Amino acid sequence: MMIIGLGFVKLCFPFKTAKSLTHPLTLSLLGGQSQSGAQSGSAFGSGTQFASARIFTVQELSSACNDFAPAYEVGVGGHARVYRGYIPPYGDVAIKRAKLRAMQGREFQNELDVLSRVHHRNLVRFFGCCEEGDEQMLVYEFMKSGTLHAHLVGKSGRTLDWKLRLNIAIGTANGLNYLHNHADPPIIHRDVKPSNILLDEKMNAKLGDFGISRMVDDPEDIMTFTRVAGTWGYLDPMYRETRKLTDKSDVYSFGVVLLELVIGKESEKSLGQRKPIQGDMPAWVEKEYLAGGLEAIIDPVLNGRYPYETMCRVLETGLWCTRPKWDDRPKIKEALSALEYAKAVAGKETLPEDSQTMVEVFGQHLFQNLGLKKPRGIRTPPPGQAGGLLFTEDQLLGATNGPGTSYSADSVVLPATYTKVEAR
User: Fold this and answer.
1) N or C, which terminus of the chain has less Cβ within 10 Å?
2) How do residues 217-245 score in pLDDT, each as one tens digit?
3) Which of 92, 113, 134, 191 is catalytic?
4) Is residue 96 a known part of a binding site?
């Protein structure tokens, strides 16, 4: 399995004729500016300048993967096939080759527009592109560890432990946070799912595939579409029903990914070890979790080796992100804060009686967002797992921002002391 990436790039055109200066792909990369304009410092649209992008020839890319031989194919989608190739000085690359006219020009142009504006460690790096005759190709970094999907369904030959899963979740959230809050203009991905989360050799997560992404003036703006685009199972139900899209639609999709990181995906390894998922996945997870606790639904591949409370927090963040209504979901930066908090307290859940600890603020906030009638409390963990502390709402508010103050995931206040309440 392969994957792809983006980054800063320096325009070095292989074409030496005047015609190359008006090549449609060249103009696409330059945001409609002349080559001289780019060299003098003009930006691509209102976004980031490329520091090094190449326009490749069909011959170059064909040679890189043995004339697009089947043995070099590492992925296939509805509109394109992906090949692994080798191009100096980039080394291994991923070549996304559109099926004949499948990308319809608009998707091809859209992905180029997005790629010209983004640069982040959790987004795939873009090296260049090719447009000759009927051929349309994009060239990215090759992601040696494949897709998150391949790992979750057991096709990678490697088991993801809880630390990797949490780091992948945080990396993906970081990439989305950049798209929503730091890209210029903001970008809504529209197709967040495990097969679009790519992993490098160090298992760092990077978002890829921007073919249906949309640039917006404000990520909170509501856009209306004539048709719904995305992947069933990860589609925001409000977007699916109303054809209206906001940044909270990406948050929903990310929430489904979080749930799958905790419970796994249906695979040969999970069959017979857990109840099969039925109907709407987030609703099923919430029902089973509240009825039977984490141990009833967690991925059996983990074989009990995980910090109980930390994985509860990750799953509950997923449930928060997948609330049916936009207003009940967090912003992606709030979900990111919750995950970083979960990571910070991982391994610190069993403490001496006289130790001081951080108050679990997020869990109580989530309890309110789930609309439960009373606190879920901390369930007794399975044998060998860490226990937890249960705090009342008044104690939580009193220990942090004071009575009557709303919790903000952007400013978690960790008290120096706390009042212990016996776990139950």
Assistant:
1) C
2) 887 778 878 788 888 889 999 998 998 99
3) 191
4) yes
